[in-house]
Amino acid sequence: MALAAVIHAPHDLRIDEVPDAAPRSGEALVRIAAGGICGSDLHYYHRGGFGAVRIKEPMVLGHEVAGTIEQLGEAVGDLAVGQRVAINPSRPCNRCEYCLAGLQNHCLDMRFYGSAMRFPHVQGAFRQMLVCDAAQLVPVPDRVSAGEAACAEPLAVCLHAVRRASDLLGKRVLIIGAGPIGTLILLAARRAGAGEVVVTDIVDAPLALAGRMGADATINTASEPDGLSPFERNKGAFDVLFEASGSAEALNSALAALRPRAVIVQVGLGGEALLPMNTIVAKEFDLRGTFRFHAEFATAVGFIAARLIDVRPLITQTVPLTEAVRGFELAGDRTRAMKVQLSFE
């Protein structure tokens, strides 16, 4: 048996024993070392789900994980026992029409770790030992910590969002929301050649980190409600907006700062929203969604491994698995934490 962080109901997170399993052909057994607490994990912890999705049975949480290969099944290629790996939590069927078209993030039979979107739920990866498909594993150099490797999943989300924006070279970029995703979008946009990046939020602490991570300017729109007004002259200044807060109010208040034909990439999930369609039509905005990732996961691992994107400043604290409740409470406090990780070692 191995220990795992299992959600039973809102604010009922337990450290339970879960059965061990041996890897079959094409699979690997990974000893998990680190796992990052994501916003979706917090939704399950605080509210039992999000939108219409609710937990209906105990579910192991977690999908941002990395560890070391403990055992390999048969028919596994270029992997070795003892190798450090980042684990892609996305498990598309690779058979449906979308997978065959290269759109695996829209798979009709997706199994994504720690998700209650289907029943029985897809159990997550916040466990000491995890059996997974060998194809999910991306090797990580020993010089890169497990905590860094566990950041590959949120970085992949951001790389996909930046890809959805198309060309960023020399562009002026506005990011709403300075949480882990907004801050990683900042780093990804810089990597893609953005000329200027401005970040807004309603909390000072994450904005301060965004400033240290390379934002040209940061604006607290709670204490400076007119902070974007200088960018509204001559029909707006920004070429691209990444909305990473999930706030319809924040999105709508930023539209005046966007240039005609700006691209809006909606990253944050905040439920239904009323949009000023007259403004969107008159300024010819492109409104684009972005959902998860696929090929970007391996790219994210490569960027982290080469330190082309340095995720270390985002990791606020690492908490032992046995103190997972404390970790979740800390992760929900934006004044004290950016990215909280669990240690399984």
Write a structural description.
The protein has 345 residues and is α/β, with parallel strands linked by helices. It has ten helices and 20 strands. It folds into two domains: 2-151 and 311-343, Alpha-Beta Complex (Quinone Oxidoreductase, Chain A, domain 1), CATH 3.90.180.10; 163-289, NAD(P)-binding Rossmann-like Domain (Rossmann fold), CATH 3.40.50.720. Strands 3, 7, 8, 11, 12, 19 and 20 form a seven-stranded mixed beta sheet that branches. The two termini are 15 Å apart. The relative contact order is 0.16. The model has no long low-confidence stretch (mean pLDDT 96).
Describe the structure concisely for a colleague:
By secondary structure, this protein is of the alpha/beta class. The chain has 2 domains: 2-151 and 311-343, Alpha-Beta Complex (Quinone Oxidoreductase, Chain A, domain 1); 163-289, Rossmann fold (3-Layer(aba) Sandwich), CATH 3.40.50.720. The chain has helices spanning 39-47, 97-100, 146-149, 152-164, 180-191, 204-212, 248-254, 277-282, 296-305, 324-331, and strands spanning 2-9, 12-18, 27-36, 49-50, 53-54, 59-60, 64-72, 84-87, 90-91, 111-112, 129-133, 137-139, 172-176, 196-201, 217-220, 238-243, 258-266, 286-289, 315-320, 339-343.
